[in-house]
Amino acid sequence: MTKQQPTPAPTAARTLPGQAPAAPPPGPAPSAPRRITGAVIDALLALVCGAAAGAALGIKVVDGVAELRLAPATGAAALAGAVAFSLVNHVLLTAACRASLGKLLTGLRVVRAADGGRPGLARLTGRWVFGFYWAVVAVPLHVASDSDVQQQDAVGLRVVRRPA
To answer: CA gyration radius for the chain?
Structure first.
């Protein structure tokens, strides 16, 4: 009868003396419907805030009667309001809470892909800018070509499900 040698641990799990242990994985990937629902909620909130900003600028009171006058300034205010809300929601709120309003409602959060840590403002801003590119360029191309390519997380950040 021969004595069996113990099997060594996988290389990725080993840590050398003086070396920090490997970081845990960032978390489970969310389903596509959950991710899309969070994005749709965020987009609708930005549109509503933009419409409110445009309406606020376009309301004129004449002889005690409030009128909504549409003008180029009204459209510019609506666009500025939507972009400002999107920036606050996706960058500042995510920096504070690790998730935008839509992600909070759908049980998601944004983490660093490398170690699952809290994302910084620079990466969140880069992710926000990438989101505009994705919405304006990539989504129409995928829809037109009937592609099944999935959105990739940008600038070293990932969207994961929040722990229960």
So the answer is: 23
